[in-house]
Amino acid sequence: MPPEEREAIYDPATVHAMCCDYRAGLRGDRAADDADRAAGRRIACPALFAWSTRDDMVELYGDPLAIWREWADDVQGVPIESGHHMAEENPQALTTALRALLRR
């Protein structure tokens, strides 16, 4: 783990922000998602879902693109060879995937 990351995870403000983000996903964000689904709203713009190959996304949820196809009209996906922190662990692959989406 890089020293900057280690320093951040021991900073109480960082830990608080991380917990707030997780809490929002279970409360307000979830309520907004449920309301959108009930209203039949979908993501209309092109979307990219990138997942880490050394994380447990596929193990926990199966085909990650199948989940997003329930929400988005035009979703592309790409596995990124990395652990949980793909932007830090494989920035080149993530950049390549993002550029491909933005060129569409």
Description:
- With 104 residues, this protein is mainly alpha-helical.
- It has seven helices and two strands.
- The protein has two domains: 1-41, no CATH class; 43-104, no CATH class.
- 60% of the residues lie in helices and 12% in strands.
- The longest helix is centred in the first third of the chain and has 15 residues, at 12-26.
- The chain is globular and about 45 Å long.
The helix-and-strand class reads mainly alpha
What is the averaged pLDDT score? 91
Largest sheet: 2 strands, parallel
Estimate percent helicity: 55-70%
Distance between the termini: 35 Å
What's the structural domain tally? 2
Q: Care to count the β-strands?
A: 2
User: What best-fitting shape do the alpha-carbon axes yield?
Assistant: globular
Strands in their spatial order, largest beta sheet: 1-2
Radius of gyration: 16 Å
Which regions are unreliable across 5 or more consecutive residues at pLDDT < 50?
Answer: none
Number of helices: 7
Element-level helix/strand string: HHHEHHEHH
How much of the sequence lies in strands comes to 5-15%
Protein name: Alpha/beta hydrolase family protein
InterPro entries: AB_hydrolase_fold
